[in-house]
Amino acid sequence: MTAASDNPLIFGFEFSADGNARRLSWDDVAIGPAERPGVRRWLHLNRLSPAVRAWLTEKSGIDSVIDDSLLQEDTRPRCLAHGDGLLINLRGVNLNEGSEPEDMIAIRIWMTADVVVSLRAFHIKATQDLSDRIMAGDVPETNGAIITYLAARLTDRIEPVITGLDEQGDDFEETLLEPGATLPKTVLSNFRRKVLTLRRYIIPQRDALAQLTREGRSLFSETETLQLREIADRVTRIGEELDTIRERSTVLQEQLIEERSERMNQRLFVLSIISAVFLPLGFVTGLFGVNVGGMPGVESPLAFAILCFGMLGLSAGLIVLFRGMRWL
Prior knowledge:
By secondary structure, the protein is an alpha+beta fold. It is built from 8 helices and 7 strands; from the N terminus they run ββαβααββββααααα. It folds into 2 domains: about 10-260, CorA soluble domain-like (Beta Polymerase, domain 2, 2-Layer Sandwich), CATH 3.30.460.20; about 270-325, Up-down Bundle (Methane Monooxygenase Hydroxylase, Chain G, domain 1), CATH 1.20.58.
């Protein structure tokens, strides 16, 4: 991953009652608390900035419990009602250059009716989408609309990644249907790791969105609540699809192990047959190789040829015997 810039304020907006938006600078934010009377605000901050940490703990006016939660190093998706606001942690797939989508990145949000404070450590395209929309003049009417839009855009970008994993699973199945086909040792294990990593955050995200619709009734309109329920349902379907992909990958892994075991057993069986054929031959050659007096054929020029033909006949007899016993 590539860390965000050192700028404390990634972008911020102040929304007036007449529906206009004013772009804020860090100086506008740093001089006072997060909430300002008579206006709504959305502040999108760089969690890695020391200036942001100092502002949150000293000037933001946000409860210290919420400050600690917003600045935690590692979080899982959740929703928590606190006072007149909501603490919301969500995750999105990492689509930044040089990163893997399953390395999901977090956005931490504190929202009240008057302010939305969001923090991230790495670039999240959903927030950029909303910023571009506001700059184009499409201003969210409520802070609930901001949260709803971010949740929808995060989900929009998760779905293609899950679809890609499902198609990759189909490719693995088609490959293994071919006689004698196999997969490199690490391919399927890496695939399963991706699925499990995504599932680790998708399932809690489903629960967080469901909790958001219950806890945020005073902060979301009826339309926004319905939209959040639809988003939660989409995330639920994504979680179910991940469970299906995980089960399929487990079956594929077991199938691959069985096929490798079968090939190994076949090779061991061939080696066992070869050993069974050459064991009596080794006994005969060892017996006739004893360097003691009285060995038959020592003086006969035909003895070696007779011994060779005898061993060929013994080998042929053993092969016929194995075929009769259906070992071959």
